[in-house]
Write a structure and sequence with these properties.
By secondary structure, the chain is an alpha+beta fold. It has two helices and twelve strands, in the order H-E-E-E-E-E-E-E-E-E-H-E-E-E. The chain is elongated.
């Protein structure tokens, strides 16, 4: 053998280049953007959290509660708790504030009150969501609820500014139906109202 060194042929597969830091950053940026888009779409069309600022729905909802509201494909039976846009006909309240109340009267029904009793189409309304003996506060004047509108009241009847003052609200102003209380008294809870 000669003293000549034998050269080895180059390998068939080249080594990959070292990873570049900008590829890593771009990947994370894409993940963050997708997460933001998904969260915005969920909030706009599916579910949203709301804060309860007043005692108008006490004892069902309390000041400081955080609630989850279903914004799509929800029904509106009597007794449902909903979030809706502040009525435009109400000169006393801020128009950009959303409200939370309970559905009491449905489209086409005739509603009124006598004493502490609410009547729907001549029959006393059973209200299992209220503590026994809850006073009505302001009376309900006899009226027929227009098609596509709902009569709303707070559970804290003597401290609730509701349809007794500004009338029934259109279905189109209802944002969604409350389905879960997720925060109360500074702690997480998972209560169905």
């Amino acid at each position: 053998m000669s003293d000549l060194e034998v050269e080895t042929p180059p390998s068939a597969t080249p080594e990959p280049p070292p990873p570049r830091r900008h590829h890593w950053a771009v990947g994370w940026l894409v993940v963050i953007i997708v997460a933001l888009v998904v969260s915005v779409l969920l909030r706009l069309f599916v579910v949203q959290t709301f804060y309860v600022p007043t005692a108008s729905m006490y004892p069902t909802l309390q000041i400081g509660d955080r609630i989850l509201v279903q914004k799509f494909d929800f029904s509106l039976p009597r007794g449902a708790i909903v979030v809706f846009e502040h009525p435009k006909d109400d000169p006393e309240g801020p128009l950009n504030e959303d409200l939370v109340k309970r559905v009491i009267g449905l489209p086409g029904e005739t509603i009124w009150s006598e004493g502490n009793t609410v009547y729907i189409d001549g029959k006393p309304l059973a209200e299992p969501w209220l503590p026994k003996g809850t006073p009505l506060g302001d009376p309900i004047t006899r009226q027929t609820i227009p098609a596509g509108e709902y009569f709303m009241m707070g559970d804290n009847r003597t401290d609730s500014y509701d349809s007794r003052h500004w009338g029934p609200i259109p279905r189109s102003t209802i944002i969604g139906r409350v389905f879960l209380i997720v925060w109360r008294h500074g702690h997480p809870v998972f209560d169905i109202p």
